[in-house]
Specification:
The chain is mostly helical and 115 residues long. Helices cover 66% and strands 0% of the residues. It is built from six helices and no strands.
């Protein structure tokens, strides 16, 4: 339920240029956050193992810096498409699964059963 209203929110939110600027700065701050030397080494190793190049990282930064209000609206379309065709995976006890199934009407499939 927490994400059901996301698309509608993104379509209706009134972002000012200041709001958008703050969001972009905060996101870049997360992407390029300060790291101590040991964390820099660990991050560099992870990037190497995952094939994340400096060119890829710069392209990602450029996309973030070029974000517009229109991009927020486009994200709403992507969220709706995912909700329409998406699959929810849950690892839980049988009683919890049955309660959620009753409340939300989910179809359930167990990897442990033949069906």
């Amino acid at each position: 339920k927490a994400y059901d209203g996301s698309a509608g929110f993104l379509r209706s939110v009134q972002l000012t240029e200041g709001d958008l600027h703050k969001a972009i700065v905060a996101t870049i701050g997360d992407v390029d956050s300060y790291q101590l030397p040991d964390a820099k080494g660990r991050t560099a190793t992870k990037r190497y193992l995952h094939g994340i190049t400096d060119e890829y990282r710069q392209a990602r930064r450029d996309e973030i810096l070029g974000t517009t209000v229109k991009d927020f609206r486009s994200l709403a379309d992507a969220i709706e498409a995912a909700q329409a065709k998406g699959v929810v995976s849950v690892v839980a006890g049988e009683q919890s699964v049955q309660e959620c199934q009753a409340e939300f009407g989910f179809k359930t499939y167990s990897p442990l059963s033949a069906s």
